[in-house]
Amino acid sequence: MRACWICRSTQPASARFCSQCGVPLGHLATVGVPPAAPAPASPPLRYHSTRVGLRLAYALTGHGSEPLVILDS
Predict the structure, then answer these.
(1) Distance, CA of 6 to CA of 19 (rounded, Å)
(2) How far is CA 51 from CA 48, 56, 62, 69, in A?
(3) How far are the Cα atoms of 6, 21, 28 from residue 9, in angstroms, in the given order?
(4) pLDDT tens by residue, 10-54
(5) Strands (E), the chain
(6) What pTM was estimated for this model as a whole?
(7) What is the Cα Rg of the chain in Å?
(8) pLDDT tens, 50-63?
(9) Do 64 and 50 meet the contact criterion of CB atoms below 8 Å apart?
(10) Closest Cα to residue 6, out of 28, 14, 62?
């Protein structure tokens, strides 16, 4: 079994084309496909401790005057 590189459905090893989306499988799938771009590096984390002992992690990236705050538990 192997997975389709487009729809990720599993296909039998003998299949030449994906039964779900029709793309070529195996060595045929590499013809005309550009190499994958490297993943962008994430900015380094910075930390801030509040007066009540809460430790916050944040990262700075991009530019602009308005901050974007994402809270994750």
Answers:
(1) 12
(2) 10, 12, 29, 20
(3) 8, 9, 17
(4) 878 788 788 888 877 765 555 555 667 777 788 888 899 989 988
(5) 2-3, 10-11, 46-49, 55-58
(6) 0.37
(7) 22
(8) 899 888 888 888 78
(9) no
(10) 28
